[in-house]
Amino acid sequence: MMKHALLSNRFALGLLLGLGSVVGLWLLLLAGQAGRPVPTTQWIEKAYAHKLALADAIKQPKLVVVAGSAAMFGIDSAMLEQAVGRPVVNLGVNAGVLSPYIQHYARQVIKPGDWVLLPVEYPMFHGRWSINYPFLDFWWEHPGFRHMDVNVAQLSQVLWLTPLSRVLSGYRGLPPGFVVSGLYGPQNLDQRGDQVHSEASQQQVWMRGLVEQSAVETYGAQAHGWDANWASWKALADEVSTAGGCALFVPPPMLDRPAYHHGRELRYYQALPEQARMHGLNYVGSPLQTMYPIDRFFDTNYHLNAESRHLYMQQLVEWVKPVFANCPAR
To answer: How do the domains of the chain map onto residue ranges?
Structure first.
């Protein structure tokens, strides 16, 4: 009996040591490629570099648009600039990198007295501790937590969910002579940070297919209170206000679906503005009024085509112009 127990203990110890060795080796592999650029993140990297430079060149109080790619495609900064009477820079790039990075870059460009418009995509108001592959991919190129609202729960997910293919990509780095090309990146951004070359006439068949096949979102079902992300947005808005500016939240443009007009999903969109205000955010507008039919979208359920951008902006200006007219001016 004692011999059997001793063998069992040795087996358990060996198993633990073996598992520890595997985990240790995996952590070493992850650490070895951290901070190295990879092709899949470069359009985000370069787009932010372009927009940060645009913001840095503005030496007077400005309006900064903070969100993901729905703003990059949906905001007409020239129209907004004319409406509010101050320079505008569109900092929208990619909602996939989630609020920690979006807020991190926003803090780099927002100066005292600036106004901030936040057409934040709906998932960024909840799912505070969740991650996705774009976030994970970008994190390994820009690891760090000191200046971002990222916690141990997210770090654990990053370490657990990183695929071997991403690790190998990190070790390979960028191919010689690599340049960002395609639809996304600074090559398709104008002097205010808005997306260009997104006219309906330039929509290819595969782009239309992406819109048609895009998911029917279930944000109402996902918006559980336990992981709500209101606090991090309020912290950013409070910083803007303390510095003599204004932060205003508005609904983003999104592809309309019949499911959004019934049951839990309808209640979610109807209640969202008041929920935001209850958590201390200055929120104007109605999400149901910025949902548009499929012909208005370019390549995702959040990306308006260029012609439809003006439809969204007309509604947006109607909501935001009176609010910004009453904001402090420096």
So the answer is: 44-127+188-325
